[in-house]
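Pasting as-is:
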Amino acid sequence: MTTNAAWLTAIQGLSITGVNELTTPPESIDTTNLPIGFPNLPTGGRPELLMSCHGNNKARSIQYIVIVEATGQDTIANNYGQLAALMDNIETELDGLVPGTVNFIEYEATTSGNFPVGESEYWAIVYDITGTDAR
């Protein structure tokens, strides 16, 4: 299984169409650069130890967030369209992590109209991503 550092580097290296990439979460947001994407720190663990896959069944998880627009700046319909298109672009990049970085990847996306960064709230897409080498 890849290390936590390599997992973070792989997610930091995503090149998502239409998204300005940051390598760490921002303390504040310059709205002229939106949408922006960034990872949180990874988490890791090991599910049940399998003797046939000893050392290969660790899991690495991370959140990847795309901030789309400040809340209240546009119509909900416009935000929905932009969120859906960005989700397609994100999933294309995530699917490219397999094979190579990990053998199996799972992800789940949620959207929010009130994701906090600093003193403001934003429309955002939050992906919970988990990679493993064995099932």
